[in-house]
Amino acid sequence: MLDDLRKHEPQPSAEESHWMGLDPLGAATRALVMVGISPMIGVAASYLVAPDDPGIPAVASARTAAN
Q1: What is the DSSP letter of 7?
Q2: What's the pLDDT score for residue 25?
Q3: With the CA atoms of 29, 30, 31 and 35 taken in that order, what torsion angle do they form, in degrees rounded to the nearest 10?
Q4: Please, what is the Cα angle at 34 between 31 and 38, to 5 degrees?
Q5: What is the pLDDT of residue 7?
Q6: d(C-alpha 13, C-alpha 20), whole Å
Q7: Is 12 within 8 Å of 20 (Cβ atoms)?
Q8: Are 27 and 18 in contact (CB under 8 A)?
Q9: CA 36 from chain center: how many Å?
Q10: 3-15 pLDDT per residue, tens
Q11: I need a surface site. Which of 1, 12, 52, 56 has the fewest CB within 10 A?
Q12: How many angstroms separate the CA atoms of 53 and 41, rounded?
């Protein structure tokens, strides 16, 4: 089926040659690094948006004041 897409050409195209030359270990390492860094960026961004955490005592006092 994939041969139909390639029109039965025995020589790979430039794109196919690039994919065949890809180092799978290097690509997996880069992907894992990106997966590890993305939560750090998300947490840092959430602290930049709302840096003041009211904390447990402030929330507890707000609940008792509302009742």
Answers
A1: T
A2: 95
A3: 100
A4: 145
A5: 64
A6: 10
A7: yes
A8: no
A9: 8
A10: 566 666 778 888 8
A11: 1
A12: 18
Q: For the chain, how big is the Rg over CA atoms in Å?
A: 26
pTM of the predicted structure, to 2 decimals: 0.50
Look over the chain and give the mean of its residue pLDDT values, rounded to a whole number.
79
Indicate the residue type of 29: T
What would the two tokens of residue 52 be?
A: 């003041």
**Looking up tokens 């992907």, which residue turns up?**
31
Question: Is a pLDDT exceeding 70 seen at residue 53?
Answer: no
**Cα 23 from Cα 30, distance rounded (Å):** 11
Segment 27-38, tens digit of pLDDT? 999 999 999 999
In 3D space, the residue among 41, 63, 59, 43 whose CA is nearest the CA of residue 51 turns out to be: 43
To the nearest 10°, the Cα dihedral for 50, 51, 52, 57?
100
